[in-house]
Amino acid sequence: MEEQERREVLTELQDALKVFSSNERSYLLIPEVRTNLGYAVNGAKNVFDVAAVPGRVSVAFQRILYCLPPAFGASDHIARVILTAMEFDQRMRSAMNVIFHPKFLTLNPYVFDRASESTSDKQVERRTMNFMVRKAFEETGAIPELIVDKGDFGKEPGTFILGRNPKEVVERAFHLLSLIEER
Length: 183
Hints:
Layout: H1 2-22, E1 37-40, E2 50-52, E3 58-60, E4 63-65, E5 71-72, H2 76-88, E6 94-98, E7 110-112, H3 119-122, H4 128-140, E8 146-149, E9 158-163, H5 166-177
Pfam families: ThiN (PF10120)
Protein name: Phosphomethylpyrimidine kinase
GO molecular function: kinase activity
């Protein structure tokens, strides 16, 4: 059963990536740090229970590109967002990072200010994403569908889309896309 679920996670993730990349405007959502879309198995405990795109999703000549199909353990970054969300809501098994655009604020997302993170925590790699999601839950009592990361010195602002599955996340991404014009 576990292997079947893992295959299903990979298939659903690949299908969502195809839908996302088939939209000719999706490239507008890709930040400089690139994008990843992840999806966890039920009860995920670590990065190897979360599938994502190896090397992330990129853009060239206004086209979405990714070199390899989704794989488990492919992204520590998006996996930490998902795993932390699942600590509070086991249904929130998928996430994607995209650009920040001021119009996204009209959707009333949770806004994360990195200044709220202690200086000592900031200096430790692989803590900010966990802290961001925990803080969102502590302040709102739920895992939000959208978290805006205001960024910091050397850290690009961005938006995290969270959902139950990658199809739902991509649908939310398209809603964000409808709010922005060409760059």
